[in-house]
């Protein structure tokens, strides 16, 4: 496991490098990943617009900002994603906003299809679902928490729908986008703070 994570970190990029890559792909009418289709290229274009909007509009509440800034452990946040992934476009900018609050948090991005061993090590219910955040203790290299592919409220929403109807419909996916747009990243922030609190109970006292 250590070797897999170390290799992934060596292949990783910063959030800004990822954003630059997405812009380059749009110019080429392409996408990340092994599968190149017009549909996925269009999703990449749409996701760039989403990330650009979130980069400008996400606001971290003062109480969450205070908690993130008080976290004194060196951690690396390694995020597995692809440019066509809608959930990633909504989640990754929020994680970046949180990481920017504290130099103890190092955000790194890797592509799923280019890191198959890493993805296979962090499946969600047996699936290669993304985005997937792997929280790593920077000093020891130990994995201390994983998160994703969706915020807790969105995941519960999806699971209820799947349990009732068997699969996600186009109409439901539109509803999910509406949820992301109205929630404005708050659930991601709350989930991350909760995870940090479990790791370091005194962090939230």
Automatic annotation (TrEMBL):
The UniProt entry, under SUPFAM superfamilies, shows: Thioredoxin-like (SSF52833)
CDD domains named in the record: TRX_family
Pfam short name (any one): Thioredoxin_9
**Could you tell me what this protein is called?**
Thioredoxin family protein
Which species? Confluentibacter flavum
């Amino acid at each position: 496991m250590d070797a897999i994570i170390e290799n992934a970190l060596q292949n990783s990029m910063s959030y800004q490098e990822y954003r630059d890559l997405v812009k380059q792909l749009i110019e080429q009418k392409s996408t990340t990943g092994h599968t190149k289709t017009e549909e996925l290229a269009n999703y990449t274009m749409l996701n760039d617009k989403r990330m650009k909007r979130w980069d400008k509009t996400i606001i971290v509440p003062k109480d969450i900002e205070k908690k993130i800034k008080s976290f004194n452990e060196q951690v690396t946040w390694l995020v597995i994603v692809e440019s066509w992934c809608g959930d990633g476009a909504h989640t990754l900018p929020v994680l970046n906003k949180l990481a920017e609050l504290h130099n103890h948090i190092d955000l790194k991005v890797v592509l799923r299809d280019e890191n198959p061993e890493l993805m296979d090590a962090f499946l969600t219910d047996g699936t290669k679902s993304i985005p997937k955040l792997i929280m790593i203790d920077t000093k020891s290299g130990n994995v201390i928490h994983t998160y994703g592919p969706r915020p807790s409220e969105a995941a519960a929403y999806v699971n209820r729908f799947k349990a009732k109807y068997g699969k996600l419909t186009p109409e439901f996916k539109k509803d999910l986008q509406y949820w992301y747009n109205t929630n404005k990243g708050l659930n991601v922030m709350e989930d991350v703070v909760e995870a940090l609190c479990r790791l370091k109970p005194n962090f939230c006292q």
